[in-house]
Amino acid sequence: MDVWYVSYGSNLLEERFLCYINGQTPEGSTKPENGCRDHTPPKQTRRIDLPYPLYFAKQQSKWGQGGVAFIDHQQASNEITIGRQYLITEEQFTDVIAQENNIQELHIDFTSIIKENTKTILSSWYGKILYLGTNDGYPIFTFTNPNPMNKETIYSPALTYITVIAKGLLELGLSKNQVVSYLFHKKGIREYFSISSLYTYLFGS
């Protein structure tokens, strides 16, 4: 069965996401990805807006010093997180989560997740799967931190990481000013930047 995988972090940039499919090293990362068993590219891709708060946490990752993106488990009426849907197979989705969590093999019971809406399958960074409904008859899933946002220490993201997110947002059709305005209000950004300093950080003077 095909499913929609929703990214809200570095996989907003299709080139970066394809590294998970094909097995390549993303620009700015220090770690080559293993790739999926099936290298077929996504059948479709499109934007989706999520009613969950976006934040940046964890102190260091393969992108360097700084946080990475997560969404909280609870919806917030005044929050929108821009996501990108990729229509891929269940097997590819499983392989992507395995790579995100640095494990070799993984089994996911998609039926039980749809029934329960959310399920923690691993204790690692991206071990919680959220079911987000359907689109064109296909179920929509994303994954995030098993810990809620209020249990995490907020860190500003590494330049290499946030630059990939910014490129993904541009690819979705946002202008540079819209990218800055969107990111500026997120936890892990607003504590460390002004609008002007964030623009310079992302795009130069």
Set down the secondary structure blueprint.
Blueprint: E1 2-7, H1 14-22, E2 45-50, E3 54-57, E4 60-61, E5 64-65, E6 68-71, E7 81-89, H2 90-100, H3 110-116, E8 118-120, E9 128-135, E10 138-144, H4 159-171, H5 176-184, H6 195-203
Parallel strand pairs: 1-10
Antiparallel strand pairs: 1-7, 2-7, 3-6, 4-5, 8-9, 9-10
Total domains: 1
**Estimated radius of gyration:** 16 Å
| Percentage of residues in DSSP E strands | 15-25%
Strand order of the largest sheet: 2-7-1-10-9-8
Main structural class: alpha+beta
CATH class designation: Alpha Beta
Question: What is the tally of beta strands?
Answer: 10
Query: What form results from the Cα inertia axes?
Result: globular
What is the number of helical segments per DSSP (H or I, 4+ residues)? 6
Terminal Cα span: 47 Å
Per CATH, the superfamily is Gamma-glutamyl cyclotransferase-like
Parts with pLDDT < 50 across at least 5 consecutive residues: none
Main β-sheet, in a few words? Answer: 6 strands, mixed
Q: Would you give the CATH topology?
A: Hypothetical upf0131 protein ytfp
The CATH architecture designation is Roll
Task: Compute the average pLDDT.
Answer: 93
Query: What is the chain-wise order of helices and strands?
Result: EHEEEEEEHHEEEHHH
Tell me the helix content.
Answer: 25-40%
